Amino acid sequence: MSATAEATNIAAPRSGRIDPKYTRSKGKSGNFEMLAWLFMRLSGVLLVVLIFVHLFSNLMVGEGINGIDFGLVAGKWASPIWQIWDLAMLWLAMLHGTNGVRTIIDDYTESDKVRFWLKIVLYAASTAIIMLGTLVIFTFEPCMVDSTGQLLDRSPSFCFDQAAFN
């Protein structure tokens, strides 16, 4: 082999030793990363369906964007189907986003201590948003009453129609 042939021989990527400052402490993760990868793909597909049905039902059916108000949300959440639909959208979107940000933290944070605290903040924020969102969806009461049990004037119109039947 000539000298020019040896000079153009390029070593394969990652064939050399990795600088120790770029290595992380290796814990036993098992199949977690593979399951997280699979979750991202499946939740992404499911989120596309959930979001497009949500948008279609809110924007294309009825009055369109002009019809989106407190009464529309209250009417939808009167149905357990829409409560579960919106709950699934909330949970999947938050878990999908949290997993994505976790991956970014793992990829771009060099210090184990900083990585740990960033993940703690991420998980705490995600847990709080999921819990508060779930609480709002299942405890939402559109027909507001005063201390005597009478409907308030600012209640949606369907509350007054419902009160007439009671």
TrEMBL record:
The keyword NAD does not apply. It comes from Citricoccus muralis. The lineage of its organism: Bacteria, Bacillati, Actinomycetota, Actinomycetes, Micrococcales. This is Succinate dehydrogenase hydrophobic membrane anchor subunit. Coiled coil: none annotated. It is found in: Membrane. The chain crosses the membrane at residues 34-57, 77-95, 116-140. Keywords: Heme, Iron, Membrane, Metal-binding, Transmembrane, Transmembrane helix.
